[in-house]
Amino acid sequence: MTDAFEPVIIGFTCNWCSYRAADLAGTARVKYPPNIRLIRLMCSGRLDPTFVMKALAGGADGVLITGCHPGECHYLEQNYKALRRYLLLRRTLKGMGIEPERVKLVWASAAEGVHLAEEITKMVEEIRALGPLNWPAWKDGNGHQSPVETKAEEVAA
Amino acid sequence: MAAEQNPNQERIGVYVCHCGSNIAGMVDVEDVAKWAGEELKDRGVVVARDYKFMCSSLGQELIQKDIQELGLTRVVVAACSPHLHEQTFRNASAGANLNPYLTELVSIREQVSWVHTDKVEATKKAKAIVGGGVERVIHNEPLEPLHVPIHPATLVVGGGIAGIQAALELADAGYPVYLVEREPSIGGHMAQFDKTFPTLDCAACILTPKMVTVGNHPNIELLTWSEVTRVDGYVGNFTVTIRKRARYVNEELCTGCGICQEKCPKKVIDTVYEAGLGYRKAVYTPFPQAVPKYPVIDRPNCTYFQKGTCKACEKFCPTGAIDFTQEDEYITIPVGNIILATGYDLFDARRISQYGYGRLANVFTSLEFERLSNAAGPTNGNIVLRDGVTVPKSVGIIHCVGSRDRNYNNYCSVICCMQGLKFAHLVHERTGATVYNFYIDMRTAYKDYDEFYQRVLEEGTLFVRGKVAEVTDAARLPGEEGKLIIQVEDTLAGKQRRIPVDMVILSAGLEPRKDAKEVAHLFGISCSASGWFIERHPKLDPVATMTEGVYIAGCVQGPKDIPASVAQGAAAAARVLGRIQQGEIALEPIRASVDESKCSGCRICNNLCPFNAITFHEDRMVSEINPALCQGCGTCVAGCPAGAISGTGFSNEQILAQIEGLLLLNVEHPLMAEAA
Predict the structure, then answer these.
(1) With the C-alpha atoms ordered B646, B647, B652, B654, is the resulting torsion angle positive or negative?
(2) Residue B174 CB-density burial (10 A; 0-12 exposed, 13-18 middle, 19+ buried)
(3) Helix B366-373 with B416-431: angle, nearest 10 deg
């Protein structure tokens, strides 16, 4: 027996805006589906595209990237760098045969708890419609080992 | 032993908080703790407990006892948002001699129990979040906070009553203050008022002595006609650039005699201080008690600047203080802390066209009425119609104009009810006119306010409960000719009424300054959806902001009356004083650094840093990050193609491990399904 598909989404939030929006959604008891799990970064500019690959390779069906609205970055302009990386990342994903829609960028200020909750709800439905990514199963045998090897072993000098 | 399977040899304690029923009502916290204790044993979890209130002293002692008795090397607390209690649990760990940065707080309240409705799913998500926290904490490194000295000077932006109070508190305590004001004089909105509710003190009588003290204070450098254009640095060490607009008046020579204002031939409608009701000259001080006393020349309106001839002010100035060659000056000052008290703008009543402001002459805004009733105002305090002579026989005061209205602002502007009552009292006292107040709800909370309401009721002011639909001059019934007719549903009488009056006063709401967003961005803080600056905590930290070293006071945080603005000004100053007296501040050690042995010298990171914290050493062909300038955003860490830059507190290892941890349950899911 198989359960209905419930997507798992990893969300990256900025400490200054979207993480606070998530806090605000909580304090205001705004409801959204439990399919998302958030990670706090200091800034959307911290988002290494590797993190997205790691999440997808590790079993996530989608990745939500959130940051401050353009012009409102706590670190002046780093969200623009996140935007640039996001656009490149989508092209890369397409090249790898992954629907670029699985990765989404949303701006949410600290005051936009409701907006963030709505965007999460929307994304869960979009990913549900896309179906499971199931990247871990692409690799034979080795379970959920990430195809993107990020931790290079130090070689003793 | 389980710990042997943990490659990092860490001994981790997991603590799951019930938060009363806040978390336990939606998450099976016992199950989460049990799961962590069993399933995460091979990751180094040696103890997992749940407790009613982890943040209580008993909860903290529980952690401390385990650290000491079980030799924990890492702690994960699953409770509320780190923005609320991260420091609490870090301190608890530090109290048991565990480096505070080896403690991780993960949120299962704001991100789980408060936003989800399915207990099974919520519990599963809580487990995933705990899993993420455990995986992440293994990679946490012991850190020491960065100690930086605090510069003793403070920048106060905005010279209204809140900013004045803050500046005086700081200066009286013996510390230097820079008070920056955009207008030619300090005083703010309060300087425009005649009386203040509920005591009917004369606003000028209580405000101007404070203004004079500010002007004379040896510790206050007053920068009027000035604006902050740039803010660099961080708490304790801000560098602020201020544009001092050219006054065209030499402050060294000017005595403030006012002859230039008398002789200036150019009359200008004063839209700021006189709210458009009166005139000023092109060279002016906004009002006689202005601080500082030096006038400014308003360049766009000055005949000399526009037409090339005039210079009347220069000819008549007895001290030769007029200087048409002055230019804007940019000064840079170091300050340790910043208090923002930039105030509010009045709601533009033109936006509600059915109330007729701007179209019907005798519809006034609250600020216009303040000037009208002010003895120093354009009518010398005579309450008259727009023609300047006719005394009204009946006056309607409309409350909640632009407030508590979905079309404009949802919030209550707090002061308008009391302001409306004050107007009613003044009209009654000075003209004997019949006064109607049109209100939705009367809100007269706070000390002596309701007593004032009773007093105005007893004076015979009429109160009509209902939102006014329209103010019109189209007479339909006898007795309406030449009047303004207020069309309103009287919700207590349950009928429509048309009330003809001579004068209408719109008790307009308070709005954030038009440029609030730009100002917020300049100082690195945020605005709420309504546009007011966001405080660090709505109840427990109303004057601090999320940006260390930047405080807010007065209406910039939300609509409030004078006593509350003064209290906030003083509170913000007290917070700053506490900081200054510490001498130094401990900053979060979230910083990036370059491993020179891995740096290829590509210089990609150099352009990613907006704080110029990264310098390239041509000789060694490597980049280096200055930890004093680095703000810890981590963009360079993510951008380094060689992986040579690492960020403390948010390292690649920590985040990648957290991703793995969050997905742990899902990866196991198919296996568990096979087993089942």
Answers:
(1) positive
(2) exposed
(3) 40
d(CA B249, CA B290): 15
Mean pLDDT of B308-330: 95
- pLDDT of A154 higher than 70: no
Handedness of CA B629, B633, B636, B637 (dihedral sign): positive
Q: Given CB atoms, is B672 within the 8 Å cutoff of chain A?
A: no
- DSSP 8-state class, residue B537: B
Q: How far apart are the first and last CA of chain A?
A: 54
The closest alpha carbon to B162, from B190, B202, B184, B196, belongs to B190
Of B292, B256, B252, B287, nearest to B273 by C-alpha is B287
Neighbour count for residue B385 (Cβ, 10 Å): 15
CA–CA–CA angle B79, B85, B86 (5° rounding): 95
Beta strands in B204-349 (DSSP E): 220-223, 226-234, 237-244, 267-270, 278-281, 283-284, 296-297, 329-335, 337-340, 344-346
Give the pLDDT confidence score for residue B242 in this predicted structure: 98
Instruction: Say which residues have a Cβ less than 8 Å from residue B137's Cβ, sequence separation at least 6.
Output: B10, B12, B74, B75, B76, B102, B103, B104
B45-51 and B74-79 beta bridge pairing: unpaired
Query: Tokens at residue A88, please?
Result: 């490149």
Per-residue burial over B50-81, b if 16 or more Cβ lie within 10 Å, else e, is bbeebbeeebbebbbebbeeeebbbbbbbbbb
CA–CA gap between residue B355 and residue B366 (Å, rounded):
13
Kindly report, residue by residue over B577-621, the tens digit of the pLDDT. Answer: 999 999 998 888 999 999 999 999 999 999 999 888 899 999 999
Q: CB under 8 Å to B2, separation ≥6 — which residues?
A: B41, B42, B44, B45, B46
Angle, vertex CA B583, rays to CA B577 and CA B586, nearest 5: 100
How far apart are the C-alpha atoms of B229 and B232, rounded to whole Å? 10
Q: How much is the pLDDT for A150?
A: 47
| CB proximity under 8 Å: A 12-41 to B | 16-17, 19-20, 22-23, 25-27, 29-34, 37-41
Categorize the per-residue pLDDT at B129 as very low, low, confident or very high, splitting at 50, 70 and 90.
Answer: very high
Q: What is the pLDDT of residue B546?
A: 84
Continuous H helices in B114-155: 119-138
Please check whether residue B442 is in contact with residue B385, taking contact to mean a CB–CB distance below 8 angstroms.
no
Residue B115 to residue A50, Cβ atoms within 8 A:
no
Chain B, window 576-615: residues with a beta carbon less than 8 angstroms from a chain A beta carbon: 590, 608, 610-611
- For residue B666, give the nearest of A8, A23, A117 by CB distance: A8
Give the Cα separation of B181 and B333 in Å (integer): 15
- Whole-angstrom distance, CA of residue B172 vs CA of residue B181: 20
pTM over 0.90: no
Contact B663 A34 (CB under 8 A): no
Helices and strands, number each (H, E), in chain B:
17, 34
B631 Cβ contact partners less than 8 Å away, ≥ 6 residues apart:
A75, B234, B611, B613
Alpha-carbon gap: B98 to the closest alpha carbon of chain A (Å): 23
Amino acid at B9: Q
**Runs of H (alpha helix) within B6-140:** 29-39, 57-70, 82-95, 119-138
Measured between alpha carbons, how far is B479 from A42 in angstroms, rounded to an integer? Answer: 67
**Assigned token pair, B661:** 């941890």
Nearest-CA neighbor of B483 among B506, B507, B504?
A: B504
B456 phi/psi in degrees, rounded to 5? -65, -35
A85 touches B at CB < 8 Å: yes
Collapse the DSSP code of B431 into the 3-class scheme (helix H, G, I; strand E, B; otherwise coil) and give the result.
helix
Q: Which two three-digit tokens encode residue B512? A: 């954030």
> Does the beta-carbon distance from A42 to B528 stay under 8 Å?
no
Those of residues 444-483 in B touching chain A at CB distance below 8 A are: none
